[in-house]
């Protein structure tokens, strides 16, 4: 009985620490973001590696997940389960990644097909989101649009885009970050986020 009480107390303390971390993250504290990143990086990377089979793809998706978390930090409400939230973003990014590949190579692994159980409502919402996304992308500056399309639509790594566009990696990352912010604002304007 004593041992189970200790476990419960540790779980409650961990939950409270995560809640405080999220509050600090919403305020824009980089230290809170860094702490969250290191708290979840290894287990998220392992999860992604098991699904993708590629360290490069897994690292790209990991970067995308935490970029989304940083960009959406002010909109993160009180999350009951941060672990589920982070892994849901990762799962969605993996599905997006495999959908891109399936369009290029006509395949989608069974594990991903099992993860995607879409209802007609989900399909309709996806189409609506896609249309709004295209509207948002079309409103980006030319550089942001090009970086976004090369990275998200063609699946190129930011490092490769920097070389192709003859820009520094920092500049490309900045364009991508600004593109995602502008897209997010557009979705909020359309009351989709």
**In the CATH classification, which architecture of the largest domain applies?**
Orthogonal Bundle
Largest sheet: none
| Helix content, binned percent | over 70%
Here the CATH topology of the largest domain equals: Arc Repressor Mutant, subunit A
CATH class of the largest domain, named Mainly Alpha
Number of helices: 9
Low-confidence stretches: 105-118
Fourth-level CATH superfamily of the largest domain = Winged helix-like DNA-binding domain superfamily/Winged helix DNA-binding domain
Distance between the termini: 45 Å
User: Order of helices and strands, N to C?
Assistant: HHHHHHHHH
Shape: globular
How big is the Rg?
A: 18 Å
SSE blueprint:
Blueprint: H1 2-26, H2 30-52, H3 55-71, H4 82-105, H5 110-115, H6 120-138, H7 142-153, H8 158-165, H9 169-189
Helix pairs in contact: 1-2, 2-3, 2-4, 3-4, 6-9, 7-9, 8-9
Account of the protein in words:
It is a single chain. This protein is mainly alpha-helical. It folds into 2 domains: 1-77, Rna Polymerase Sigma Factor, Chain: A (Orthogonal Bundle); 112-193, Arc Repressor Mutant, subunit A (Orthogonal Bundle), CATH 1.10.10. Helix content is 80%, strand content 0%. It contains 9 helices and no strands. It has helices at residues 2-26, 30-52, 55-71, 82-105, 110-115, 120-138, 142-153, 158-165, 169-189. The longest helix is centred in the N-terminal third of the chain and has 25 residues, at 2-26. The chain is globular and about 45 Å long. The termini are far apart.
Concise summary:
It contains nine helices and no strands. It is an all-alpha fold and 193 residues long.
């Amino acid at each position: 009985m004593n041992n189970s009480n200790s476990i419960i107390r540790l779980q409650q303390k961990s939950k409270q620490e995560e809640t405080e971390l999220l509050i600090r993250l919403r305020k824009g504290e980089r230290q809170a973001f860094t702490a969250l990143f290191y708290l979840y990086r290894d287990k998220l990377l392992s999860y992604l590696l098991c699904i993708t089979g590629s360290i490069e793809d897994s690292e790209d998706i990991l970067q995308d997940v935490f970029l989304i978390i940083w960009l959406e930090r002010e909109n993160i409400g009180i999350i009951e389960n941060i672990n589920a939230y982070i892994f849901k973003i990762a799962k969605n990014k993996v599905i997006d990644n495999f959908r891109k590949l399936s369009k290029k190579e006509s395949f989608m692994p069974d594990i991903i097909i099992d993860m995607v159980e879409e209802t007609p409502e989900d399909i309709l919402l996806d189409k609506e989101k896609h249309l709004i996304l295209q509207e948002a992308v079309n409103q980006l500056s030319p550089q942001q649009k090009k970086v976004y399309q090369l990275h998200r639509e063609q699946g190129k790594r930011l490092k490769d885009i920097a070389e192709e566009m003859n820009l520094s990696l920092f500049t490309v990352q900045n364009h991508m970050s600004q593109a995602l912010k502008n897209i997010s604002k557009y979705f909020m304007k359309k009351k989709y986020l």
